[in-house]
Amino acid sequence: MQQMTAPDLAAWLADPARARPLLLDVRENWEFETCKIEGSTQIAMNTIPARIEELDEEAEIVCICHHGARSMQVAAFLERNGFARVTNLTGGIHAWALQVDSSMPRY
Question: DSSP characters for 10-69?
Answer without folding.
Answer: HHHHH-TTSPPPEEEE-S-HHHHHH---TT-EE--GGGHHHHGGGS-TTS-EEEE-SSSH
